[in-house]
Amino acid sequence: MTTHAAYKGPADCPGVIPVFPLPCALLLPRGQMPLNIFEPRYLAMIDDALRSDRIIGMIQPDVESGSSPMTPRLFRIGCAGRITQFAETGDGRYLISLTGIARFRVESELATTTRYRRCQVSYDDFASDFEPRAGEEAVDREGVLKALKDFVEVNDLKVDWSGIEEAPNEALVNALCMMSPFGAREKQAMLEAPDLKTRAEVLIAVTEMELVRGSGSEPTLQ
To answer: Distance between CA atoms of 189 and 186, rounded to whole angstroms?
Structure first.
């Protein structure tokens, strides 16, 4: 079976993958996403993935598009992940962990006999996702940490600052984006950012806007 380390470029990844539409769920390359699977169609999806390459695509449904609630339109960009941890509970649920590989663009959705959805996808626009820590030197780390500290202070949260200070820029930015409490549009903007520097800038901007909204004040034009 192919290992996670074998995915070194777009050509290494499958062109047809099952997709898991989940609002406000953001997976990024090399990020870790825990999932609690209980719906029968997604239990079947995990069963099938475990029998093949263990890859599923995380993607957000575009719930604001006016499409059918039963089969919502999908955003065009998601992230493929490989099942790297799996456990089965006594009540029939699956507890899995996905490790992000690379983002993909949906080329088309396939007609299928499975209960879950499958898409033809391309990774060609995201070749840099396969390079660990690409673009780290361009990240405004101080800006990211300031936005985080302000958000933590306003919301009276507890964080492991020692772990944060030690984290490389890619791990820091991607983990904060994935864990952030923002909405689907904001999460999608973070996903679609062309590089790590821009993703950090989106994270800072969204956090600052949330702090302004929370304070009840209006931004001042300079």
So the answer is: 5
Both tokens of 157, joined, read 């949260």
Mean pLDDT of the chain, nearest integer: 92
HEC letters along 19-38: EEECCCCCCCCCCEEEEEEC
Record the tokens describing residue 150, joined without a space.
Answer: 């302000």
pLDDT higher than threshold 70 for residue 219: no
* 109-128 pLDDT per residue, tens: 999 899 999 999 999 999 99
Instruction: Classify each residue of 29-67 as buried b or exposed e, where b means 16 or more C-beta atoms within 10 Å of its C-beta.
Output: bbbbbebebeeeebbebbeebeeebbbbbbbbbbeeeee
Q: Which residue has the tokens 């820590």?
A: 133
Which phi-psi region, left, alpha or beta, contains residue 124 (left: φ > 0; alpha: ψ -120 to 50)? alpha
- The whole model's pTM is what? 0.91
